[in-house]
């Protein structure tokens, strides 16, 4: 169980730019690990409307339930470590495990029995320290799509933004707004419903 403020900057990059970043920071294939994010919301996207998100992250047979919600600066992230049985009960039967995430959703007056699994996004990820923060290289796959993204996690919003933008400029990478992963997944789901 943990609570922390997440301040991060994201940029969608092309595959060519992604390879340039990996070469620049000497990131090898061996440094990548795989994780799956299973995303939840209500049928009417109640969490999304509040700028919040709910997911189970599955990594090396470990499971973490995370609620992200807007904070004064960045996002407040509430995490509960759960076991595989609890993860399966939530994904398959909408049964919430006890913990801080469930308590917070009750405080937010959400009918927790209305959450269901919307979709899963798999990410191959590598990380390296950079200027008192963490650079994250993500190659994500979801619903027949894939994308490449650079993230920079920091504790100082102003300096972090400056360092991130300077890095993009130095490598001649265009600034491209990156929706968070759950929004990218939802857009594809909504696009499929509309077509």
From TrEMBL:
Q: Where is the CYTH domain?
A: 4-192
Domain of life from the UniProt record: Bacteria
Gene3D superfamilies (UniProt xref) = Hypothetical Protein Pfu-838710-001
Tell me the PROSITE patterns matching this sequence.
CYTH
InterPro entries given for it? Answer: CYTH-like_dom_sf (IPR033469), CYTH_domain (IPR023577), Uncharacterised_YjbK (IPR009195)
Protein name per Swiss-Prot or TrEMBL: CYTH domain-containing protein
Supply the source organism for this entry: Lederbergia citrisecunda
